[in-house]
């Protein structure tokens, strides 16, 4: 018999069903409260019911849970200090979309050695989300693989669809069923229309193929996500300036879509250089002081230490607290930017 299918598949490896997997790492009551409250606060900021700004800050990617927890502890203290002005949410990114190839994040390759033990990656990701939300810290992540939400999404308060997948029907369909607000990045060349089309698709009910809680293949029917919004991350040129933001707001208004704008201070807005993030941050804070109420939040790529490092030295030789993907600002700079933004905005928003 000739074979016409699975020609390029090496193996089918077992995946534990989400309900079985979650029994091993159940959500504790304090995490559940943090997730529910975290989502509610974000929704209120996006709709303007709460005038504060949402700050999504944390490593470009998680590769070391010890460093991530140290970061989360520091962020908890800072979150409390600035709570009248900012709703601070931790970036806890486990899935990395690559331009070509590269390490795809903790879930895909937790041992960082190409062994790609996805089940172990899911376990470590869920455990870290439990530990962080147990501190009362709301969480943000990028969702890339459409099956992964069944394993971790119950611990996530805000999700991003990245610049490389914002035009993908699969990601729009997935977003329409997600339980948290979803931010669509503009695509890598800077075009807004892809993210705007995503918002329309994500708001609408959809049907697509997925798995249920028992791990069984099924047709997922969704209700639509009412909290889809845009994240400006720059493209061929930055798009955090007041003219770009006004243009985005006008385009969204014409389409009768949410005009809430989140500015990503990193990526193409910073020229992918960590030092560029402070320039974007300060400009956006000034726009808020000058009364731009469409801006609902900012994202920072931040780690314990600044810059980034190559993974070629092997996981055991990595420098502690330094990003293995995009450049990040240091904890000290993060604290300085957030505290100075808080001081400038106190009583003004
Ligand atoms: O935020 C992370 C990166 O910008 C994104 O995953 C792409 O990375 P790459 O161009 O190094 O593959
Ligand atoms: C990959 C990311 O961003 P973008 O999709 O904007 O490149 C990210 O935030 O990690």
Question: Can you describe this structure?
Answer:
The termini are far apart. This protein has a single domain, classed as Aldolase class I (TIM Barrel, Alpha-Beta Barrel). It is globular. 46% of the residues are buried. An eight-stranded parallel β-barrel has the order 1-2-3-4-5-8-9-10, surrounded by seven helices. A two-stranded antiparallel ribbon has the order 6-7. α8 links the parallel β8 (228-232) and β9 (261-264). The model has no long low-confidence stretch (mean pLDDT 97). It contains ten helices and ten strands. α3 runs parallel beside α4 (118-134). The chain is α/β, with parallel strands linked by helices. It is 36% helix and 14% strand. Phosphoenolpyruvate binds at residues 60, 93, 97, 142, 162-164, 185, 233, 264, 267. Pfam families: DAHP_synth_1 (PF00793). This is Phospho-2-dehydro-3-deoxyheptonate aldolase.
Observed structural traits:
349 residues, alpha/beta, TIM Barrel, eight-stranded parallel beta barrel, two-stranded antiparallel sheet, 10 helices, 10 strands, binds erythose-4-phosphate, binds phosphoenolpyruvate
Topology (elements, then pairings):
Blueprint: H1 18-24, H2 29-47, E1 53-58, H3 65-81, E2 86-91, H4 118-134, E3 139-142, H5 149-152, E4 158-161, H6 169-177, E5 182-185, H7 193-203, E6 207-211, E7 217-221, E8 228-232, H8 242-254, E9 261-264, H9 276-289, E10 295-301, H10 331-345
Parallel strand pairs: 1-2, 1-10, 2-3, 3-4, 4-5, 5-8, 8-9, 9-10
Antiparallel strand pairs: 6-7
The structure holds erythose-4-phosphate (E4P) and phosphoenolpyruvate.
């Amino acid at each position: 018999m000739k074979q016409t299918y699975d020609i390029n598949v090496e193996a089918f490896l077992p995946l534990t069903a989400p309900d079985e997997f979650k029994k091993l790492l159940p959500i504790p009551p304090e995490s559940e409260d943090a997730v529910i409250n975290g989502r509610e606060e974000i929704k209120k900021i996006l709709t303007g019911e709460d005038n504060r700004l949402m700050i999504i800050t944390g490593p470009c990617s998680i590769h070391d849970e010890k460093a991530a927890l140290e970061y989360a502890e520091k962020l908890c203290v800072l979150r409390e200090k600035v709570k009248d002005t900012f709703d601070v949410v931790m970036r806890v990114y486990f899935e990395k979309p690559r331009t070509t190839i590269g390490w795809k994040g903790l879930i895909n390759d937790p041992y960082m050695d190409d062994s790609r033990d996805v089940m172990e990656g899911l376990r470590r990701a869920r455990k870290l989300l439990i530990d962080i939300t147990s501190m009362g810290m709301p969480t943000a992540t990028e969702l890339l693989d459409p099956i992964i939400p069944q394993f971790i999404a119950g611990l996530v308060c805000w999700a991003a669809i990245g610049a490389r997948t914002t035009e993908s029907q699969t990601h729009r369909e997935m977003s329409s069923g997600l339980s948290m607000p979803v931010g669509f990045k503009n695509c890598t060349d800077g075009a807004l229309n892809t993210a705007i089309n995503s918002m329309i698709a994500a708001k609408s009910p959809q049907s697509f193929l997925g798995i249920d809680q028992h791990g069984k293949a099924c047709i997922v029917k969704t209700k639509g996500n009412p909290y889809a919004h845009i994240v400006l991350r720059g493209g061929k040129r930055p798009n955090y300036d007041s003219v770009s933001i006004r243009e985005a707001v006008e385009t969204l208004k014409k389409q009768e879509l949410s005009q809430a704008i989140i500015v990503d201070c990193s990526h193409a807005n910073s020229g992918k250089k960590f030092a560029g993030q402070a320039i974007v941050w300060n400009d956006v804070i000034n726009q808020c002081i000058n009364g731009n109420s469409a801006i609902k939040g900012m994202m920072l790529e931040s780690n314990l230490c600044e810059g980034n490092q190559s993974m070629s030295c092997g996981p055991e030789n990595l420098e502690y607290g330094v990003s293995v993907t995009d450049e990040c600002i240091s904890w000290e700079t993060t604290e300085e930017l957030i505290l100075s933004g808080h001081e400038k905005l106190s009583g003004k928003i």
